[in-house]
Structures are given as structure tokens and as C-alpha cells.
UniProtKB/TrEMBL annotation:
It is found in: Nucleus, Nucleolus. One of its GO terms (cellular component) is nucleolus. Residues 22-157 form the Obg domain. This is OBG-type G domain-containing protein. It comes from the Eukaryota. Residues 158-353 form the OBG-type G domain. It comes from Drosophila virilis (Fruit fly). Belongs to the TRAFAC class OBG-HflX-like GTPase superfamily. OBG GTPase family. One of its GO terms (biological process) is ribosome biogenesis.
């Protein structure tokens, strides 16, 4: 009977459903409970052991799916503290529960309050404290440990975030530029989960690129896969925008948007989702330059693309951002033919290096100012 059920269930799975059933997991709910405090021994003034606590530690290379598989019932409980006894007046402390979570996880409580942002390897946080042991203060009755449901939200950490509407050629680029092996097809939404690729250089330097799929007009308001992937952009240092030089049409029901309108639409999506994203350095790739007529389109749009504020008056009202992006570099490319891919690699590296150098200068300046404040006017002169 069970076999028959399994067979029937299997046969109802369509290829389309199988395609959209993503393996990528970026949120997880867990119930965590600290251990109960052990009871005290009133006769001898004995104190019960404190309950163990539950804590998370960030580890590189882990995934939320793996964590979910390891914790099948999504519950974690630390052990109770030992009761005080004649032979052991001070009860032993309960054993803590150490849970390894993927790097980049943010931990929220039921009220959506951020408890911890674990974005460094080995960063840790206690999510459920153990109950205090029984003592004079609590009538020698051990207290229960903290108990709560926590929400783990994974935000990918990558150097570069690849942003573009479906079918722009993001996966093709990622494949040409990095070690990733994304799926490529001539229909939108081929990529249904973020892909991370590593770009390697001859001097062994490497940078990571995240392809963030599913972005469509209205994603900020959670249309399509909306927020699910937009949130990953927050932790990238550089935004790499990609548009099809011939524009994009989501479906026959939607209007065809030319290349410039698509740039404005991406600009607006990001602005509506989080305006601070527009402050990130960005590079623009105009793809599919190998196709006939591409050069002419580029020639016509060049002045508006170079300075987006030039084309704003002609931009449709619903796509008009209040603040326009300022691209550090604009590169016409053909991801399919790997044309100018070496330049893309070089520009990404240079821009990231410039950024790192800027950070170093500001960090040094801040350090100097702090030292100057501490040393005051009498101390040695800091140059
Ligand atoms: N002519 C031409 N076609 C390209 C180029 N780059 C990508 N394509 C084609 O455009 C289609 C979409 O490419 P993808 O790389 O899957 O696009 P995507 O942006 O990852 O699409 P989603 O997975 O829907 O997000 C495929 O048929 C590619 O072969 C290019 O430089 N020139």
C-alpha cells in the first residue's frame, strides 16, 4: 500500500514543478530551549547546577539545507543542570548545545528582532540561556531555561552581485567568467536559485560573484521571487548590472522595455527595496552585442546610458527613479561569444581593489583621529 502511494505521488510530479522545486534554502525556523536549572538542597544550602545554553557558531561551507537535514525535528534543547546532593553540594552545569550555522546567517526572534548577525567565521551567539540552579533566592527550585523560536535568515556574502532581469545573459556570463555551471536556456527564470561562482586570476587572486535571479519589475513589492533574492544584494561590495541591449519583455501581457528603460527599471527596483543600495559602486554590462543591429542601438542610447539623468524626462513615469545610478564603468559585451570577458574580469578586480584601498585610507584616518584624541595635545605628534 505504502509503495502504491509512493508511486502515485511520484507520477504526479511534473517536470515544471520539479524545476521550480529549488534545493536552495535561505530561511529556517528552529525552536531552541536552554536546559532546566538543577534543584538545590535546602538542608545543606546546596545549589543546583545551571542549565546548559544553546548557541550558534558560524561556519564556512555549511548550508541551511544541511542544517535542516541534521535537525530533522527543528528542535534543539540543552541538558538540565544537575541537582545538588549530599555528595555534590554544587550541582554540575548542564551541557551546552553548540549548533553550527552557515556563515552569513542573521538570527531573528519571533518579534522579528535581530538577535545576531553571524557574518564572520566562528562568530557566535547564545540563542537560549540555561535556567538558574535552585538556591536560597528561588526556594531551591531550579528555573526553566529560555525557550523561543528563532528564525535564521541567510544572506549570501559575495564580492560582486550580478543584477539583471531574466534572459539578460547572467548565467552565460557567470559560466564564461567563473567556475560556476549554471543552467542556460532561452526562456526567463531558468535560474531559480542564487548561484555563486569564483573568478580566478593568474596571480591566484579570486573574487566571488553571485547571480541573483528572478528579479522583475515589482520585485521590491515582492512580485515574482522578489525579496527572496534581492536581500542577497545587501552583502555584496560591488553591483554588476546586466541588460540585454535589445531590451526585455517578461511575457506577451507585459510591455516590451528597451535597454534604457530596463536600466531605469532596475534602478527603481533597487531604490524602492533599499535606497542605500544605490550608494554601492556599480558597473554596467550591455549584453548580446554580437547580434545584428546592436551597435546602432548602442550608438543611439550612449548619451543617456553614460549619464542616466539625461534620459530621465523621456523615461516612463512608472519606471522613473528619484535617484539615478552612477556606473563606474560601462562595457558592451557578448557573454555568449566571450567577447570582452577578459576586460570584465579586469574591471571587476580593479574596482574592488580601488574600494579596498579607499577603505584602508578611511580606516587609517579614523585610527589616527582616535589616537590623536587619546594622546591629546601633550602626547607625541602623530603623523
Ligand atoms: N546572442 C546572444 N545570446 C546570448 C548572449 N548571452 C546570453 N544569450 C542567450 O540568452 C538566453 C538567456 O541567457 P541566460 O544566461 O540563461 O540568461 P539569465 O539572465 O541567466 O536568465 P534567467 O536564468 O532567466 O535569469 C540564452 O538563450 C543565451 O544563450 C549573448 O551575448 N549573445
Amino acid at each position: 500500500m505504502v509503495q502504491l502511494f509512493k508511486f502515485l505521488l511520484k507520477s504526479t510530479k511534473s517536470p515544471a514543478r520539479a524545476h521550480f522545486r529549488s534545493n536552495f534554502l535561505d530561511t529556517l525556523r528552529l525552536t531552541v530551549r536552554g536546559g532546566h536549572g538543577g534543584n538545590g538542597l535546602p538542608k545543606y544550602g546546596g545549589v543546583g547546577g545551571q542549565g546548559g545554553c544553546v548557541y550558534f557558531v558560524a561556519k564556512e561551507g555549511l548550508t541551511l539545507r544541511k542544517l535542516a537535514q541534521n535537525l530533522r525535528d527543528k528542535r534543539v534543547q540543552a541538558t538540565s543542570g544537575e541537582d545538588s546532593s549530599k555528595v555534590s553540594i554544587f550541582g554540575r552545569r548542564g551541557v551546552d548545545q553548540r549548533i553550527e550555522v552557515p556563515l552569513g546567517v542573521q538570527v531573528y526572534d519571533e518579534q522579528q528582532k535581530l538577535l545576531a548577525d553571524l557574518n564572520e567565521h566562528e562568530a557566535s551567539c547564545i540563542v537560549a540561556g540555561g535556567g538558574t540552579g535552585g538556591c536560597t533566592g528561588n526556594n531551591f527550585l531550579g528555573r526553566p531555561g529560555e525557550s523561543r523560536t528563532v528564525h535564521l535568515d541567510l544572506k549570501l556574502i559575495a564580492d560582486v552581485g550580478l543584477v539583471g532581469f531574466p534572459n539578460a545573459g547572467k548565467s552565460t556570463l557567470l559560466k564564461a567568467i567563473s567556475n560556476a555551471k549554471p543552467k542556460i536556456a532561452a526562456y526567463p527564470f531558468t535560474t531559480i536559485r542564487p548561484q555563486i561562482g569564483t573568478v580566478e586570476y593568474s596571480d591566484l587572486r579570486s573574487i566571488s560573484i553571485a547571480d541573483l535571479p528572478g528579479l522583475i519589475e515589482g520585485a521590491h513589492a515582492n512580485f515574482g521571487m522578489g525579496h527572496k533574492f534581492l536581500k542577497h544584494i545587501e552583502r555584496t561590495r560591488l553591483l554588476l548590472f546586466m541588460v540585454d541591449i535589445f531590451g526585455f519583455q517578461l511575457s506577451p501581457r507585459h510591455p516590451h522595455r528597451d535597454c534604457l528603460s530596463n536600466i531605469y527599471a532596475l534602478n527603481k527596483e533597487l531604490e524602492l527595496y533599499d535606497p542605500t543600495l544605490l550608494e554601492k559602486p556599480c558597473v554596467l554590462l550591455l549584453n548580446k552585442m554580437d547580434k545584428e543591429g546592436a551597435k546602432q542601438i548602442l550608438q543611439n542610447l550612449k548619451p543617456s546610458i553614460k549619464d542616466l539623468s539625461n534620459g530621465l524626462p523621456a523615461c516612463p513615469e512608472e519606471l522613473r527613479p528619484s535617484r539615478v545610478l552612477k556606473f563606474k564603468h560601462i562595457l558592451p559585451i557578448s557573454a555568449k561569444n566571450s567577447a570582452r570577458i577578459t576586460q570584465v574580469k579586469q574591471q571587476l578586480r580593479e574596482t574592488l581593489d580601488e574600494l579596498a584601498a579607499q577603505h584602508l585610507v578611511t580606516d587609517n584616518q579614523q585610527l589616527k583621529e582616535q589616537l590623536q584624541q587619546r594622546v591629546g595635545v601633550i602626547g607625541p605628534k602623530i603623523t
